[in-house]
Design goal:
The complex is a heterodimer of chains A (about 300) and B (about 270). Chain A is mainly α and about 300 residues long. In chain A, about 80% of the residues lie in helices and about 0% in strands. In chain A, helix 10 runs antiparallel to helix 12 (about 270-300) and helix 11 (about 260-265) packs antiparallel against helix 12. The model of chain A has no long low-confidence stretch (mean pLDDT about 85). The model of chain B has no long low-confidence stretch (mean pLDDT about 85).
Chain lengths: ~300, ~270
């Protein structure tokens, strides 16, 4: 297990370097000049030159790239143009809020998915199955940008149960995390149902039933455990959607995380911040993916061998 | 008469998708209302006979805007998915048929693109390219091709070992003939499933980018920017968010069901 873990962590290095390079390439190579975009078409040429020098954009591209990687190695992402603060500090201040939101979204997804998947998988074709899968197909289809406003109308403007926007206590977290977690809940519930149905036909379930376990305890004691591996796989695959979902959710609910920082920085043409946020999102995703793979290897020893 | 479908997902999916396509093509022709014409007497007006979905903050007809938004949404997603499909398939096939270092290099590239979660890559590209429909299409395609590349590579690698392919190779078929005549037909099923889910996914991604101000530029009606504009009037005029929201949801639902249906039919999971 330790060998497997070390191998996976080493394999991370080229991907991380690739992510850093692609992010740099997007900001520096894609047509569209950040300086004229920031200062406007009518800016005085001297201002443009001054700004380029200040941002280091007057140096050769290779030199900029090396400086960028060197900065990354020591955790320096440059300085924000609009906040006049180090980008790393801006991100560090907001990162916990984004992680809190993503974790809460995941929690909501699991809390919804397990009962729904179990109800559906325990009796396929029954009323519970049809109801749960109906919810699932709607949950997958409804977009964040609609579900968010819908929940806001219902629970904060109409019923006045929950706060509309912002970050605070648990109450502030409810609507954003439900908006974020619903689609994932639907996907997980479907997956859980499918694997429970598959597990049902296996030899060890037949053994469990023939030795006298009731169908219910056979399902819980033997079926659920084996169905879990495929659920963990899907969780890993859906982490990307969850993370990029926070971007949208943060804009809808004015949640002070790095998603909102990124989108406002795009509006303000604050390219160092854009670069830093994109990089942070991608690196977080890479690390989270590694973590899910390791969890998977712990649950299912077969993974480690290949 | 009760009709029982063996594949209800396919039946419902096809029905919804056809309905949306017809609405997008015929809607703007039948309903002659201009989606851009401003009518200050009807600001935030609720649904009525003249304006079945009500009017927005500038008195523009919401139904007309939703229908024009359907055109935009469907055409962008069709263009993005077909471009991604062609580009991704070629890259995936190249990787599988070349093998060795080229395969390795291409798949590392795919891994790096996939390290950007969800729509993040499209957001980053759209941020630099600026808003607008062509830039939006480029950004979404840059994000979307990897899935097709992986499918084609995987399928080609397994199909290559099949006897009929080995036979063709032994008989002297060159690589491009091998690919076109013997390998691609075997990949059509999984690609069709992926592309159908892909259209639903791109409809959602386009709406999200336009919602964030990185896609269609107002006043061009798009479901995403309509939802964004409607958010300010949640309490006084909920119809402004309901109409485009349901349009996005029903479209994604339609393509998801269709994808499920096709997957059942061709026996492939996406």
């Amino acid at each position: 297990m330790i060998r497997y873990g070390l191998r996976r962590i080493l394999a991370l290095i080229p991907v991380a370097l690739g992510v850093a390079t692609l992010t740099f390439a997007i900001i520096h190579l894609v047509p569209g000049d950040p300086v004229t975009a920031m200062l406007g078409e009518t800016a005085a040429p001297t201002d443009v030159v001054e700004m380029r020098r200040q941002l280091g954009l007057d140096r050769p591209l290779l030199e900029q790239y090396v400086a960028y990687l060197g900065g990354l190695a020591v955790g320096d992402l440059g300085e924000s143009i609009s906040y006049r603060k180090p980008v790393v500090r801006l991100i560090a201040e907001r990162f916990p809020a984004t992680i809190e939101l993503a974790a809460a979204g995941m929690l909501v997804a699991l809390l919804l998915a397990f009962p729904l998947g179990l109800i559906a998988g325990a009796n396929p074709g029954g009323a519970g199955d049809i109801g749960a899968m109906g919810f699932a197909i709607v949950g997958i289809s409804v977009p964040h940008i609609y579900l968010g406003p819908l929940l806001m109308i219902l629970f904060s403007l109409d019923l006045r149960w929950l706060p509309l926007t912002g970050r605070g206590g648990i109450a502030h977290l409810v609507l954003p995390s439900v908006t974020l977690g619903t689609a994932l809940a639907a996907i997980l519930a479907r997956m859980l149902r499918q694997s429970l149905i598959r597990v049902r036909e296996s030899d060890y379930m037949r053994t469990a039933l023939s030795k006298g376990l009731s169908p219910r305890s056979a399902l819980f004691r033997h079926g659920l455990k084996n169905a879990l591996t495929s659920v963990v796989t899907i969780i890993g695959l859906q982490m990307g959607a969850l993370l990029s979902g926070t971007l949208i959710i943060e804009m809808i609910f004015s949640w002070p995380g790095i998603g909102r920082l990124l989108i406002t920085a795009i509006g303000a043409r604050d390219y160092p911040v854009v670069e830093g946020c994109v990089l942070t999102f991608a690196m977080t995703y890479v690390v989270v993916n590694l973590a899910t793979d390791l969890v998977y290897a712990m649950i299912d020893p077969r993974v480690r061998i290949s | 008469m009760i009709v029982r479908f063996r594949n209800p997902s396919l039946a419902i999916g096809v029905t919804i998708v056809i309905a949306i396509v017809v609405a997008a093509i015929a809607g703007p022709i039948l309903l002659r209302t201009d989606p851009l014409s401003i009518d200050l007497a009807n600001i935030l007006a609720g649904p009525s006979r003249a304006h079945p979905f009500g009017c927005d903050a500038l008195g523009r007809d919401v139904l007309a805007r939703v229908l024009w938004g359907a055109r935009l949404s469907l055409s962008i997603s069709t263009v993005v998915v077909s471009t991604s499909l062609v580009v991704g398939s070629l890259i995936g096939a190249t990787a599988a048929l070349s093998g060795g270092r080229i395969d390795n290099l291409i798949m590392r590239g795919v891994d790096i693109v996939l390290a950007f979660p969800g729509i993040l890559l499209a957001i980053a590209l759209a941020a630099i390219l600026g808003p607008g429909l062509i830039d939006l299409t480029i950004a979404l395609t840059a994000m979307g091709w990897t899935g097709y590349a992986r499918i084609v590579r995987g399928e080609v690698l397994t199909l290559r070992e099949r006897e009929y392919v080995l036979a063709a190779e032994t008989l002297g078929a060159n690589k491009s003939r091998l690919l076109m005549r013997h390998l691609l037909p075997g990949v059509v099923g999984p690609l069709a499933v992926q592309a159908t889910f892909g259209i639903g996914g791109i409809i959602g991604a386009e709406a999200a980018l336009s919602f964030l101000g990185l896609g269609a530029i107002p006043p061009t009606p798009s479901w995403g920017n309509m939802l964004d504009a409607g958010r300010a009037f949640l309490l006084v005029a909920p119809h402004l968010t309901t109409a485009p929201g349901l349009a996005i949801g029903i479209s994604i639902l339609g393509f998801n069901l269709l994808g499920d249906g096709i997957a059942q039919k061709v026996g492939h999971r996406a």
